[in-house]
Amino acid sequence: MSTLPTVSGEGVVLRLLYREKVSLDLDYLGLDPDHKDLAVKLISSSYGMLLVTGPTGSGKTTTLYSMLTRLNAPDRKIITIEDPVEYQLQGINQIQVRSDIGLSFAAALRSILRHDPDIVMVGEIRDRETAEISVSSALTGHLVLSTLHTNDAPSSLFRLVEMGIEDYLLNAAILGVMAQRILRKNCPFCSRPDPAAETLLREYALHEIAEKYAHLLEEGINLQRGEGCPQCGGTGYRGRIAIFELFEYTDDLKEIFLKKMSLEALRTVLRERPYFRYLREDGILKVARGQTTLDEVLRVC
Questions:
Q1: Mean pLDDT for the stretch of residues 43-48
Q2: CB 286 within 8 A of CB 292
Q3: Could you tell me if residue 8 is inside a domain?
Q4: What is the pLDDT of residues 50-64, one digit of tens each?
Q5: Residue 46, Cα to own-chain centre: how many angstroms?
Q6: How far is CA 8 from CA 2, 3, 5, in A?
Q7: 244: in domain
Q8: Is 153 in contact with 246 (CB distance < 8 Å)?
Q9: What is the number of domains present in the chain?
Q10: Cα(205)–Cα(207) distance, rounded to whole angstroms?
Q11: What is the three-class DSSP state of 108?
Q12: Per residue, what are the HEC states of 155-212?
């Protein structure tokens, strides 16, 4: 709970965690098969760093927990540093950041490296010191999972450079980057064919995107919209689903990053990857399946 005094009175925000209902499984995040296969490939590495990026409330922690659940095994030592610990995971050593006693992300990370972990999850890279230790951990035989606040996946590399991390160290440490957002899903009780479907198809060139990713649209385009009912409180939406932007940091991308240090150059090469699509494109795929609306996609990205 967070409170804030305003001229109109006290503002209160409650953050609710449904621990009994949440499913910490990669199969239920909304990853398409190509993205899921790549994510599993990246977290199967024995060392290196995978970053999950997005604004507050975009589901980054749930994604990290789902990855840890997939990796959790009796012969693997997994330690996490979190602020706060949102879900307690059996078989995983979880540490709560406590700034009042000097237990910051960086301080905790230095300590746990003496405990011989196989996998380390850093809840958030907030400063240069945490970034440096995280990268160093990835270079010394640990798989490191962490989050950053950036608008898209490619921008995360440049954010770490801005924090003071040398580009050659990033090239040696980074395995890949995933960006994500959360969308509201169409209500399954009142969802109907969208009456504005033809207009949307024409104005937003949905046919072009659907044709490009036809292998992911087995049933074709089916635009839906919730009409509003008691089950969804009249909103037309019930439940949530994530959209993703994901890439593997391969040698050719590393070369471009070192030589040009240009975000646009990096994006140009990424566009040639068959699996790579922008957040908005991934959202439009889910619109085409009838899982959400174009309004939702445009709202978050």
A1: 97
A2: yes
A3: no
A4: 999 999 999 999 999
A5: 21
A6: 16, 13, 8
A7: yes
A8: yes
A9: 1
A10: 5
A11: helix
A12: HHHHHHHHCCCCHHHHHHHEEEEEEEEEEEEECCCCEEECCCHHHHHHHCCHHHHHHH
Tens of pLDDT, residues 146-160: 999 999 999 999 999
Which tokens hold the place of 170?
A: 């990033």
- Judge if pTM exceeds 0.85: yes
More confident residue, 292 or 197: 292
Give the confidence band of 242 by pLDDT, cuts at 50, 70, 90: very high
Confidence at residue 21, expressed as pLDDT on a 0 to 100 scale: 61
Helices (H) and strands (E) in the chain, counts: 12, 11
Residue 165 lies in a domain: yes
Are the beta carbons of 209 and 285 closer than 8 angstroms? Answer: yes
The helix or strand, by DSSP H or E, that contains position 141, with its residue range, turns out to be none
For residue 261, the enclosing domain spans 24-182+240-277
Phi/psi region, residue 87 (left: phi>0; alpha: psi -120 to 50; beta: rest), is beta
- Looking at residue 238, its pLDDT comes to 96
Establish if 214 belongs to a structural domain. no
**Helical H segments across the chain, by residue range:** 33-43, 60-71, 105-112, 128-139, 155-162, 167-173, 197-203, 206-212, 251-260, 263-270, 279-288, 294-300
CA distance 228 to 184: 13
Find, among 86, 93, 91, 75, the residue nearest to 124 by Cα: 86
8 A C-beta contact, residue 245 and residue 279: yes
CATH assignment of the domain containing 252: 3.40.50.300
For 109, what's the count of Cα atoms within 13 Å in the CB-facing half-sphere? Answer: 27
